[in-house]
Amino acid sequence: MYPCELCFSCSQLSKLQEVSLRNCAVSCAGEKGGVAEACPNIRRVDLSKNLLSSWDEVIHIADQLRHLEVLNLSENKLKFPSGSALTGTFSALKVLVLNQTGITWAEVLRCAAWCPGLEELYLESNNIVISERPTDVLQTVKLLDLSSNQLIDENQLYLIAHLPRLEQLILSDIGISSIHFPDAGIGCKTSMFPSLQYLVVNDNQISQWSFFNELDKLPSLRALSCVRNPLTKEDKEASAARQRVIASIGRLKTLNKCEILPKERQTAELDYRKAFGNEWKQAGGHQDPDKNRLSEEFLTAHPRYQFLCLKYGAPEDWELKTQQPFMLKNQLLTLKIKYPDQLDQKVLEKQLPGSMTIQKVKGWLSRLLKVPVSDLLLSYESPKEPGIEIKLENDLQSLRFYSVENEDCLLVRW
């Protein structure tokens, strides 16, 4: 490394608000007050990847920058003096970045005491063990990044669960596989993480759906990122996994940085209600709420199912028909195709594979009718259930999924 030489005029220095000395050999020598006189308006300082070795040096700088709001000290191995208290405070500091500094949790709390207005704290890759509850510090923090601290486990998270203003918690790559809020029963909200709106758990070991069931207990959770976990890998099942997560967490508005539109939520919840309908019935579920005798095991595995039954109605028997074995004679469905809003169109009879997705059905109809796929709305009705029209809203599901049978009528609108 080589020392960084900065050349500014006096007028430039007095107006400077941000300086980056990343990957430079910074020296803190000089008369006290020199930095304050030359650069009084600096608000952002990046000192990452330097040769700083002591918090004394950092305090020396901070004491002269009273307007400092953002400080990045990543990849500096900073040591606290033993047996002596550091003086000085980062009175205006809002963002502190301490990634890969080797800092311990006890040192984090000690450092936080100097930052009474801290809002964002980044502690990635420090082998941190959360050893005690922050009581008089970190009370203003809105974002906490604990990524790649592999020693953190579920029990340690309880120690930071009552930070009153924590809105964003980043727990990527910490190896977590489960979470539980013991103060909240089925269908109840936890008192933990009361303000948490955005949770990131990418690159972990989440392999059980109970993880997402527990997240539904967080009262303020609105956004979740959970990519690259065993349950949510980017493969052919990714769409089904996304739907399951949406159905499991009722207040979620954004999943993996993609907005959850009302139609997507409705489709996900209806598909979930149908997919586990037979299991619900076998566990004591009944269309008459007064006759419901659901087992504790089912309620634990599907805590939102009863709410979905109240929201959309309990699944009817015709919705829970067992699909026929996948044999050649069962693959093709003979369907009537009608156009309720286009009286000049003739009714068509067509054989379609039961495994055909709604998306492919729309593609075929688009070519047949010369209508854009995006304009097509599909539903169907069965002669066995006259007057009941079922919307085919999920393009990725098959005709069989929606229990479409021979002689049913496919309704096409645009």
Short description:
The chain has helices spanning 10-15, 34-38, 55-62, 105-112, 154-157, 210-215, 238-248, 262-275, 277-282, 296-301, 305-312, 328-331, 358-369; strands at residues 18-20, 44-46, 70-72, 95-97, 120-122, 143-145, 168-170, 198-200, 223-225, 254-255, 258-259, 332-338, 348-353, 377-381, 389-391, 409-413. By secondary structure, it is α/β, with parallel strands linked by helices.
Structure overview:
By secondary structure, the protein is an alpha/beta fold. α7 packs across α8 and α8 crosses α11. α4 links the parallel β4 and β5. The chain has an eleven-stranded mixed β-sheet with strand order 1-2-3-4-5-6-7-8-9-10-11, with helices on one face. Strands 13-12-16-14-15 form a five-stranded mixed β-sheet. It is elongated, with a radius of gyration of 29 Å.
Structural descriptors:
alpha/beta; 24% helix; 414 residues; 16 strands
How many separate helices? 13
Instruction: Tell me the number of strands.
Output: 16
Reported for the largest beta sheet, the result is:
11 strands, mixed
Shape: elongated
Give the SSE map.
Blueprint (H helix, E strand, L loop, with lengths): L9 H6 L2 E3 L13 H5 L5 E3 L8 H8 L7 E3 L22 E3 L7 H8 L7 E3 L20 E3 L8 H4 L10 E3 L27 E3 L9 H6 L7 E3 L12 H11 L5 E2 L2 E2 L2 H14 L1 H6 L13 H6 L3 H8 L15 H4 E7 L9 E6 L4 H12 L7 E5 L7 E3 L17 E5 L1
Parallel strand pairs: 1-2, 2-3, 3-4, 4-5, 5-6, 6-7, 7-8, 8-9, 9-10, 12-16
Antiparallel strand pairs: 10-11, 12-13, 14-15, 14-16
Helix pairs in contact: 7-8, 8-11
